[in-house]
From TrEMBL:
The lineage of its organism: Bacteria, Bacillati, Actinomycetota, Actinomycetes, Mycobacteriales. Residues 9-50 form the Acetyl-coenzyme A synthetase N-terminal domain. This is Acetate--CoA ligase. Residues 503-582 form the AMP-binding enzyme C-terminal domain. GO terms for cellular component: cytosol. Pfam families: ACAS_N (PF16177), AMP-binding (PF00501), AMP-binding_C (PF13193). Belongs to the ATP-dependent AMP-binding enzyme family. Residues 56-448 form the AMP-dependent synthetase/ligase domain. Keywords: Acetylation, ATP-binding, Ligase, Nucleotide-binding. PANTHER family: ACETYL-COENZYME A SYNTHETASE, ACETYL-COENZYME A SYNTHETASE 1.
């Protein structure tokens, strides 16, 4: 035991990866659990850690970002370029009167200015809230209002499969009704499409940021200074603004990026295919990698534009060594066929990663054999918006990873499998709920504006033990390795995107033709889960049939995002309910997945349900 280091010593050592303006006085303050304070008393600047210190260390000429635009235009940004651009943006934002702690919404496609905007916020202590550019105007408005953002940064439009789709117009639509807290909208010109500008409110990036001074001195902030809010779906219709802070978050993002991906600065070319609208983009495109002086590829567009070769061409062109993507894309590649990757030299790859949903063993094997040339380790990384950084993953070079298993918590992290009552099911052959038993540096510090919901959602369930309830089911096999089985709550996972059943149901009942709706996630060979809705129509619309189904799908896309569009909508006369009025989703899932029905004895009206099942 004598050579065992304590948890706090371990994390203190990891925090030593960063540049601290002032050292911390206490590694972990858990007195206010479940609201942790890590590295209390320490101060640092997150952007300085991601950029300035690399330039000062003589790496200013190293490429930070190989950016590849969808239409084929490219830009390489060195660390010196990034420093100048982030400084310009920081000077502009400060000039708009934004002050430390203010919130900024970022609603942008995958262009360098999106990353520059995030880092400019971090540099000034502004709290960014990145809203995925695929989200609708109303989803944007909801998030802007919840965070009371003073500024929105966006672009005129975005490239999507060769078309310039408007984006700034959605910001206008979002802000059109009623008062909002937004004072300015800063707009990057990306596509050149006609864009209305509201005088006094809207500013062009190329007329402001581009002309600002490239000198800006970063000021240090408290380790617990808020860094960002990121909205994610919960079990209710209202998205949760997950709050992350500075020192602990950056420590664990940097630590895991290095150990899980075996990243070596100056040698690797790393590519994480996520969008900055999701936590993976925050932790494994922006903060972890840049803190570790990465050279990375950032690609703007879809994997099949102009054709299905695009990702493999990019890997070949830049000599990508580490490739991190989602199982849904691997399954899409499988559908396109192995001759597509086979037409390219992918031998630069030495490590593959997976994130966002369970990877089925077949996809895992295909990924390793066809993309990884049967050589590369695969790291299947389990984590969440709330955990901030990777928690469970094999480490390359250790134990043989099993296809489909997330294996073991990374050093410093502690997990258990428990039953519904919180009984520890041991460390072998157990099937239950995944809990995290010790606090970790990048853990969420709360839900923006709703501390009570934070306690209730994650901590109340196993309050006496003080464990974090992740919302996932998991299995420990005979060797003690972990397999993540998926959500145990009403959260769906579609192509690695988290969507709540309640959100989709509320969009559906928002349509005047729908009286009631129930939504379930059903197994889908490509997307992991597909959204299947059961709707009861109002008397007036009951005979409009197929047209209405089409319109309802469009309505959900408009209200939330095309990613939330139901795969199937079944018009039904009744929903299966228990006598206490609860919708029996388990039965709907049976129908959606074409299974024999489970026990229907508790239903109010079993006959009605049998009729639904026969449809
Ligand atoms: O169900 C788990 C699944 O994605 C959820 C977290 O979603 P989100 O906060 O959007 O973050 C996604 C990217 C980190 C988890 O509760 N999930 C994530 N990674 C895996 C996974 N399920 C199985 N295996 C994974 N590697």
């Amino acid at each position: 035991m004598s050579n065992m280091i304590t948890a706090t010593e371990f994390w203190a050592e990891q925090a030593g990866r960063l540049h601290w303006a002032q050292p911390w006085t206490r590694v972990l303050d858990w007195d206010g659990a479940p609201f942790a304070r890590w590295f209390a008393g320490g101060t640092l600047n997150v952007a300085y850690n991601c950029i300035d210190r690399h330039v000062l260390d003589g790496h200013g000429d190293q490429v930070a970002i190989h950016w590849e635009g969808e239409p084929g235009d490219t830009r390489d940004l060195t660390y010196s370029d990034l420093l100048a651009d982030v400084s310009r943006a920081a000077n502009t934002l400060a000039g708009l009167g934004l002050r430390s702690g203010d919130r900024v919404a970022i609603y942008m496609p995958m262009i360098p200015e999106a990353i520059v905007s995030m880092l400019a916020c971090a540099r000034l202590g502004l709290v960014h809230s990145v809203v995925f550019a695929g989200f609708s105007a109303s989803a944007l408005r909801q998030r802007v209002d919840d965070a009371e953002a003073r500024l929105v940064i966006t672009s005129d439009g975005q490239w999507r499969r060769g078309n310039a789709a408007p984006l700034k117009a959605a910001v206008d639509e979002a802000l059109a009704e009623g008062d909002s807290t937004v004072e300015h909208v800063l707009v990057v010109r990306r596509t050149g499409i006609d864009t209305a500008m509201t005088s006094g409110r809207d500013l062009w990036w190329h007329e402001t940021v581009a002309n600002a001074s490239p000198e800006h001195e970063a000021q240090a902030f408290d380790a617990e200074h808020p860094l960002f809010i990121l909205y994610t779906s919960g079990t209710t219709g209202k998205p949760k603004g997950i709050l992350h802070t500075s020192g602990g978050y950056l420590t664990q993002a940097a630590y895991t990026h290095e150990v899980v991906f075996d990243h070596r600065p100056g040698r690797d070319v790393y590519w994480c295919t996520a969008d900055i609208g999701w936590v993976t983009g925050h932790s494994y495109i922006v903060y972890g990698p840049l803190a570790n002086r990465v050279t990375q590829v950032v690609y703007e567009g879809t994997p099949n534009f102009p054709d299905e070769h695009r990702h493999f061409e990019i890997i070949e062109k830049y000599g990508v060594t580490i490739y991190y993507t989602a199982p849904t894309l691997v399954r899409t590649f499988m559908k396109w066929g192995r001759e597509i990757p086979a037409a390219h030299d992918l031998t630069s790859l030495r490590l593959l990663g997976s994130v966002g949903e369970p990877i089925n063993p077949e996809a895992w094997r295909w990924y390793r054999e066809v993309i990884g040339g049967d050589r590369t380790p695969i790291v299947d990384t389990w984590w969440q918006t709330e955990t901030g950084a990777i928690m469970i993953s094999p480490l390359p070079g250790t134990a043989n990873a099993k296809p489909g298993a997330a294996m073991t918590p990374v050093p410093g992290i502690h997990a258990k499998i428990v039953d519904e009552d919180g009984n520890d099911l041991g460390d072998r052959d157990a099937d239950g709920l995944l809990v995290l038993t010790e606090p970790w540096p990048s853990m969420a510090r709360g839900i923006w504006g709703d501390p009570q919901r934070f306690r209730e959602t994650y901590w109340d369930r196993f309050a006496s033990a003080g464990w974090y309830f992740a919302g996932d089911g998991a299995r420990l096999d005979a060797d003690g390795d972990l397999w993540i089985m998926g959500r145990v709550d009403d959260v769906m996972n579609v192509s690695g995107h988290r969507i709540s059943t309640a959100e989709v149901e509320s969009a559906l009942v928002g349509h005047s033709g729908v009286a009631e709706a129930a939504v379930v996630g059903a197994a889908d060979a490509t997307t992991g889960q597909g959204i299947v809705a059961f709707v009861i129509l109002t008397a007036e619309t009951a005979d409009t049939g197929a047209d209405l189904v089409h319109e309802l799908k469009a309505e959900v896309s408009r209200e939330i995002s095309p990613i939330a569009r139901p795969r199937d909508i079944h018009v039904v006369p009744e929903l299966p309910k228990t006598r206490s009025g609860k919708i029996m989703r388990r039965l709907l899932r049976d129908v959606a997945e074409g299974r024999e029905l489970g026990d229907i004895s508790t239903l109010v009206d079993p006959d009605v349900f049998a009729a639904i099942a026969r449809r």
